[in-house]
Write a structure and sequence with these properties.
The protein is of the alpha+beta class and 146 residues long. It has three helices and nine strands, in the order ββββαββααβββ. This is Isopenicillin N synthase-like Fe(2+) 2OG dioxygenase domain-containing protein.
Length: 146
Amino acid sequence: MGVSFLCCPIGGLQILSPDGKWRWIKHIDNALVINAGDAMEFLCGGFYPPTRHRVIQPPSDQRHLSRLGTFYFAMADDDVKLVPHEESPVLQRVGIKRLCSNDEAPTMEHWRKGRTTAYGNSVLRPGKEINVEEENIHGVLVKHWN
């Protein structure tokens, strides 16, 4: 799970809304922006997907200003295998969307190291969606929105 504390009212963070439009995250004093993250998506069988987001240049009237953000990433213990909690009554009712089979599921350590070592080193390929690039990390498709 990722948590961002936006310390100043300078834009730059956008989320992809269900209607397919990118929307600015508005600054709210003393507020946190929380993204469930990809590990949560593994553990909850897709019930809580990570927020599709991007960080871009601020609006033109704010580009001359400095911005500051603080980011914190909470993760499961390294030895936790990232498989859905199949015993969940909610998942039993709504179904499980698997990112990979239980046998192929990475541990938190394996996933964390795969994501961090790939960052900036992967050759991203064009995705099926407009302005989306993709890479494969440990057999799981990871999308990057541009």
